[in-house]
Amino acid sequence: MTTSEKKLEIEHFCLDTVAAMRDFLRFKYMIPDFDVKVKLDFSDRRNRSWGGRRNGRNFISLCLKNHLSASENSVKMNFVEYATFNDDIIIGGIYYAHWKKVVSALIVHELAHAAQFSAVGVNIAAGNNYDAKDAKGHGIVWKTIYASLRRVFVNRTDF
User: Fold this and answer.
1) Helix (H, G, I), strand (E, B) or coil at 99
2) Closest Cα to residue 10, out of 119, 136, 102, 140?
3) Is the pLDDT of residue 55 over 80?
4) 86 forms bridges with which residues in the sheet?
5) pLDDT digit string (tens) for 67-84?
6) pTM for the full predicted model
7) What contacts 38, CB < 8 A, 6 or more positions away?
8) Do residues 83 and 92 lie in contact, with contact meaning Cβ atoms separated by under 8 Å?
9) Burial 116-135 (b: 16+ CB within 10 A, else e)
10) d(CA 53, CA 110)
């Protein structure tokens, strides 16, 4: 496959995966209109991904250059989480895995940020008596969303 074909494969995988996760969040947290804008970026100048809410819209923006390289060269990848929860059995790091599993983990991580600042996060906070603002980027509301997505879309999958 050419680089363009590999990019297209990754783009389709990402968009299909986001759609499935979005539908899961809509159903699980009873927010039928939850949506997210997705940006996919293969630029060599980009070094990180992010997700959240801006101008009243949920978004994720994914840095995919390393995933493209792994796909082209058929090498395994790592997904290292923040040190405070990298060793967690549910939301911790993933090692020596296919690029699709690592991309899925990346999407889940960033999508959980988008969801935490949306009506999904408000519902979780209200239902559990958590601080609705979850001011910490990786606080309890985010971890709740992240864990539910990881269990279904990442931890049980092998590519």
Assistant:
1) helix
2) 102
3) yes
4) none
5) 999 999 999 999 999 999
6) 0.94
7) 14, 15, 18, 59, 60, 61, 62
8) no
9) bbbebbbbbbeeeeeeeebe
10) 11
